[in-house]
Amino acid sequence: MGAVTSSRAVRLRAAVRRAARALYEELWAAPADRVPRMGEPDAPVWRPSLLVLLIIAAACFAVPRTNELVTEASDGVSGWAVLAALAQSVVLVAGMIRPVGAWWAATALSVTTVLVTEPVMSPDRLFPWSVMGMVFQGGALFLLALRVPLRRATGALALTLLAGMALTLHQTQRHNLDLDRSAPVFVVALVLGAALRSLRLARKDLVVQAGLTAEERARRTLLEERNRIARELHDVVAHHMSVISIQAQVAPHLVEHPTEELRENLTGIRENALEALAELRRVLGVLRSEDAPARSTRHAPQPGLDRLGELVATVRSAGLAVAVSTTGAPRPLSPGVELSAYRIVQEALSNVMRHAPGASAQVVIGHRSTGLTVRVVNSPPERPATPSAGVRHGLLGMRERAAMLGGELATGPTPDGGWEVTAILPAGTGTTEPDTTTEEVP
Questions:
Q1: Of 43, 98, 199, 409, which has fewest CB within 10 angstroms of its CB?
Q2: What span, in angstroms and rounded, lies between the C-alpha atoms of 396 and 384?
């Protein structure tokens, strides 16, 4: 029998410890909802107005509450009653900032006030909560329900009612019990606060969902535009480049005795067309990718200054005389600078071949401590260029590449009638100081 009683006592103590732990976590340790700043999706528009009304209500509450406590108190506790009324007003305002702590303070003040004034209060007074006491405790519950989940607010309501029931057991004289009237008031306050909190959370979810929908719509629009551009590139540019490649391959067989120079030129045309097709496929892969480029595209090497010799050899095979020189000591450059420099030289030489027939070009790559200088100058054309249809984006593309890196691009005619393109690109890495040596690239 003793063992059974001991076992029950152990289980009871364990249950009490678990209940105390749960009470501590739910109604003390767990934080309340973060106060949203004005302008955030879940910031309630009525919050500033509620704060102003709460301050006014707390000030108005202090006067009748003080009169109520002083009337019921004896001379020995009247001063304390005034302080208690003022403290309760302050706690109501603090509930907007620290609702959990304010509710605990409100409950402690209510219980202490009742215990002090009950022996001297009138027997016909409502007990344990007076009218002003119900307003005060209900306000604390309302502010708590605004900032914590319904489960925690319900636990606070249960503790409030238990505190009221405990006070009725310690009355020194008979009073008119008001638990049947105070309980509905507290429940209404809790339900109203929980409903406003749910409305705020629903509004936040709606705004967040609307943002996600707009972002997805913008993403879809971008993908559709990229797919449209990819289709145009594939249907127009890829088709013509394929035709050029095939014609260059077939052309030697249409001539009875083609010269070796003709074969080399046609072979160069075919190789350039195939290389352009390969780069076009990489661009199409990027445009058609929803998230990231394909693995083969991501790891495809981008051309840099180390491939400048190949570019110059290709241009020379097309009949353009090009001289290349470098100044300064070469230094490590970021991939973006290397790629932009290569593309600017490529576009500048292409413009020379298209718009300055018979001209020669000079490419100067200048290595400096602060960056890289790319200069492409061509001589005056020997004959007028054939007008080309369509919008020209070459200069715009070079200027955008330079601006993307924080550099500058200058273009314009030279005094002798040629054309000059100069780009200044900031260096990505490296600290080597430049020198004045010049190296001619054959």
A1: 199
A2: 23
How many whole angstroms separate alpha carbon 146 and alpha carbon 211? 25
Question: Closest Cα partner for 34 from 97, 105, 102?
Answer: 97
Taking each helix axis from N to C end, the angle separating 394-404 and 335-355, rounded to the nearest 10 degrees, works out to 160
Predicted pLDDT at 235: 63
Distance CA 21, CA 13 (A): 12
Q: What angle do CA 352, 321, 275 make, to 5 degrees?
A: 70
pLDDT of residue 261: 82
Q: What is the three-class DSSP state of 117? A: helix
What's the DSSP call for residue 342? Answer: H
Residue 352: both structure tokens together: 């020379």
The Cα diameter of the chain in Å comes to 130
- Asked if 66 contacts 91 with a C-beta cutoff of 8 angstroms, the reply is no
DSSP 198-226: HHHHHHHHHHHHHHHHHHHHHHHHHHHHH
Q: What pLDDT is recorded for position 211?
A: 82
Residues 328 and 364: beta-carbon distance below 8 Å: no
Length of the chain (residues):
442
DSSP letter string, 132-186:
HHHHHHHHHHHHHHTTS-HHHHHHHHHHHHHHHHHHHTT-SS--EE-HHHHHHHH
Single out the residue of 20, 27, 36 nearest to residue 103, CA to CA: 27
Do 371 and 427 contact (CB within 8 A), yes or no?
yes
The DSSP code sequence of 389-414 is -S---HHHHHHHHHHHTT-EEEEEE-
Q: Which residues of the chain have pLDDT under 50?
A: 292-299, 389-391, 429-442
Structure pTM? Answer: 0.50
Q: What is the b/e burial string over 308-330, where b = at least 16 CB atoms within 10 angstroms of the residue's CB?
A: beebbebbeeeebebebebbbee
Cα 165 to Cα 187: distance, rounded to the nearest angstrom: 16
Integer-rounded Cα radius of gyration of the chain: 42
**285 vs 156: CA distance, rounded Å:** 60
Which CB contacts under 8 angstroms, 24+ apart, belong to 228-234? 229/287, 230/284, 230/287, 230/288, 233/280, 233/283, 233/284, 233/287, 234/280, 234/284
pLDDT in tens, 246-260: 777 777 777 777 888
Q: How far apart are CA 116 and CA 336, in angstroms?
A: 79
Do 359 and 378 form a contact (C-beta atoms < 8 A)?
Answer: yes
